[in-house]
Amino acid sequence: MPDTIETTARAALAEVLPQSLPPEAIDPDVELDHLGLTSLNKVLFLTSVCDRTQVGLHHFTEHDLAAMRTLGQVVEALSRHAEVR
């Protein structure tokens, strides 16, 4: 997983979590809903991280988005579509 995508995803996720948690403290294998992320906040997170990494949401189907249940899965999915930096 490229560090730039993971770092960007961690920062975007930390911004929408209901509790204050530093980005580096987020376990990439914990399910997003276990972190207290609502459906709306998941959409805000995914939109933000796609914008920041310049990966269009059009690359993902509804099924792809639903399968992104952890930070690690989001980073992996984005990595498949991001340009190498």
UniProtKB/TrEMBL annotation:
Domain Carrier: 10-78
Name under which the protein is recorded: Acyl carrier protein
Gene3D superfamilies per record: ACP-like
Species: Streptomyces inhibens
